[in-house]
DUF6436 domain-containing protein
Amino acid sequence: MGLSGRKKQIWLGALVGTWALGIAYVFWLFMFKDLRVFADEPESLAKFSQAVAEQVSKQVPVQNVPKRESTQLVIMWDPACSCSRFSEGHVNDIIDIYSPSGIEFIVATPSEEALALATSTFPEVTNAIAVEGISGISSPSAVIIDESGNVMYSGPFSDGALCNADGDSPVEIMLDEMNEKESVSPWLNISSFGCYCDWPR
């Protein structure tokens, strides 16, 4: 093989290597750039969760929650978050499993413009509301409110880069405990590591 042939091979190898690195970077950017710990501190998460509970109380029609007899699970869902697509199947599975036990599911979006998309993504939810102007949480995530209006859980649906429906996620554990009427302590799940985005203000 002549010198020009070797140069062509080197040039072609460099081109393929550059292309492979570019593809790897795009894949990382698409899949893993939002991997992080769910929240920095429990105080901000607690404050946000209480604000969510207050907005639910104001926005959800009273007739749908007579005397607050049902536990409410608020799905914090931002369609602009690249992580949201990983959780949608798991969330719909949770809705299917726990709706018969009387859990009321509400999807919350960062703006009113996203409400129609939210209800089409989660067609079995009872209500959809806009939660605007507050910060301190990541999404996708859940806020569980008991019959008395207390926040019992705030955090992600599961750990990891992908939202896995394994029947043993933090949300399912909490719902099972609440359904069994056990003595349940509130859980601010700040330490989970996964794919999350900041909730827009």
About this structure: Residues 1-31 form one domain. DSSP finds five helices and ten strands in the chain. Confidence is low (pLDDT under 50) at residues 24-30, 62-68.
